[in-house]
Amino acid sequence: MNEKVRVKKAKMAGGGGAAPAPKQDELHPHPVKDQLPNEEKARVVQTILFVTGINTLFQTFFGTRLPAVMGASYTFVMPTISIILAGRYSNILDPRMVKFRHIMRGTQGALIVASTLQIIIGFSGLWRNVTRFLSPLSAVPLVAMAGFGLYEFGFPGVAKCVEIGLPQLIVLIIFSQYIPHAIHSDRHIFDRFAVLFSVAIVWLYAYLLTVGGAYKNSPPKTQLHCRTDRSGLVGGAPWIRVPYPFQWGAPSFDAGEAFAMMVASFVALVESTGTFIAVSRYASATPLPPSILSRGVGWQGIGILLDGLFGTATGTTVSVENAGLLAMTRVGSRRVVQISAGFMIFFSILGKFGAVFASIPAPIVAALYCLFFAYVGSAGLSFLQFCNLNSFRTKFILGFSIFMGLSVPQYFNEYTSVAGYGPVHTHARWFNDMINVMFSSEAFVAGFVAFFLDNTLHRKDNTTRKDRGYHWWDKFRSFKTDTRSDEFYALPFNLNKFFPSV
């Protein structure tokens, strides 16, 4: 389990004060990941892949219409772990079957309630009214930290098995950056298929290390990260299985858990806004009109609703990894993403095939993250070209927001790793979750600080308007003021007549 999840798990551990005696509601069961049989883990992976494919199709057809892949979000980990540690499940003695299903029903109920937040904010146009005040200056920290803020999942994951992760990182850079410039080709084979080539080579290398006995006498932790036969997903996955709603049973609802999940949903909304902006940048589309962004948020809320109905144990947001993949491959095609979504649904039904891809060693995936997240972060930095970097106002907002976006979550994580619970530690666990999840997100903190300062600090000055780059986006604040909006964002099947964008 990676360090960030371990830290977030510790955040859920306590109630209030300096060091109170543990209560029944604060018991620490063994990690559910270790208790689950392979069959149940495979079912969860299949369900996530299936719903991800559906949500991606919805987003590309009816949402923003950008080539954005939807995926599971780390933001929902904290409230999900809180549900796992809830006291009402501590009396269930069979953790393998009954307890797991009850926990899944609890997460389903919380996700169903949380989905209403994004659905209402998106389709009512509230988010459109908020993002109208977003300028290139305030977008820089938001988008940059959407990528750079995930640094915990990069090289720390590579280092867990450096003999696999580091070769993957080196081979990926060679295929994507060096070979395309050394071997000129009109087909762009190496840069577009760099991920497939590098993963295949290093995965084969890792398999040879495994069958050759390189990890035969290694510690269990090393074997878990390095061996290619430890996940158990392939053996536990059925050949054919179609995920269906309420497959874990009827959802259960708890008010505190629902409120905590709603805050996580709002944080995911802010993070996905930054990722949507990065996707539009790499897809060579015009800047997102606020009405289109609001529409995408509404459909993302429907995606979280589907997560709750099918039981994925986590919510949906825009995939930062695939936003970075757009930059690496330079293929910003909506049709390609829709075909990819079809493959996700296909492989989720044919469980064995999907499990093969899901069982890629984690250090290989972490090496991919090193490039993908870096591309998304650099998309945020690219908006600096619209800002006046000679202005001390600009320097203050940029520096302070990015610094706080790194410093505040770092404080929350360090406090948790030492004390075993977060800085906000009251007797109300749901309130703890609400505060801790907000200030543990680098993108949320940086984006909120930048947005607030940019819209309150000498905003009405005409010189300030130019310094923040606001005038560059004026023509894109309405759907109808730019003729290219129809090309990128118009709904299919002539639906714009019935659902016009403003």
UniProtKB/TrEMBL annotation:
Originating species: Acorus gramineus
Q: What protein name applies here?
A: Nucleobase-ascorbate transporter 6
Instruction: State which residue ranges cross the membrane.
Output: 68-89, 109-127, 133-153, 165-183, 195-215, 336-358, 364-384, 396-413, 433-453
| Lineage, highest ranks first | Eukaryota, Viridiplantae, Streptophyta, Embryophyta, Tracheophyta
Keyword Phosphoprotein in the entry? The reply is no
Matching entries from InterPro entries are given as: NCS2 (IPR006043)
Extent of Basic and acidic residues compositional bias:
23-34
Q: Which keywords does the record carry? A: Membrane, Transmembrane, Transmembrane helix
Q: Where is this region: Disordered?
A: 1-34
Question: Where does the record place Basic residues bias?
Answer: 1-11
Q: Tell where it localizes.
A: Membrane
Q: What membrane topology is annotated for this entry?
A: Multi-pass membrane protein
Which GO cellular component terms are attached? Answer: membrane
- Asked whether the UniProt record includes Transmembrane helix among its keywords, one would answer yes
